[in-house]
Amino acid sequence: MATTAPLPAATIRTQIPLPLRFPDGYSSLARAFSFDGLADGREHLAFGLGDRAAPVTSTENLREPLVRPHSECLTGDVFGSQRCDCGAQLREAVERISDSGGYLLYLRQEGRGIGLYPKLDAYALQDAGLDTYEANLALGHREDERSYLVAAQMLRALGASRVALLSNNPDKARQLGGYGVTVTERVPTGVHLSATNARYLATKARHGGHTLDVPPPG
Hints:
Elements: E1 11-21, E2 27-36, E3 45-49, E4 66-71, H1 74-78, H2 86-100, E5 102-107, H3 116-127, H4 132-138, H5 149-157, E6 162-166, H6 170-178, E7 182-187, H7 198-207
Parallel strand pairs: 4-5, 4-6, 6-7
Antiparallel strand pairs: 1-2, 2-3, 3-5
Helix pairs in contact: 3-4
């Protein structure tokens, strides 16, 4: 749970220019950042896009960046699975942040924090009739085990203590605020609806409070 206690400091470890290209041909120049001192010790990355693709030489804010904390999804981000909307949201976020200037935070929190193999176990339970939250609980996990503490650490290291948040998930805004990052605006993503993810998106809207305008599952 988020807290207002002082954050342990993280620092930028390495920053390099990194051209990005997506299967549909869209490309953008990013600056990839790695960090020292992240609380969970995992290898999370930040990608500076648009005017934030320039080297970070100080922590003075130019203005409030557009930020998307994106949880890793191997099946959706890399292999194009449509059981979720993660890959489509990643692609959308890179273009919108490139246009506006800001950061994509790529967080190593597969399966809402439960890991890749358990996520596939959860998929099997969903195929048997459980929804995405029920499946996590049935496996002995919480509905959502993600923490955005490291996202807040990364933003503070980048000099971004005030952000516009590109997300439909109210928990991201709550947690970042609790960790001392001011969310000045919540910017919704698009709705990436397909025949295979309709039930998943409807469950996120109904149960998780995500701002998604999707029809209830039939």
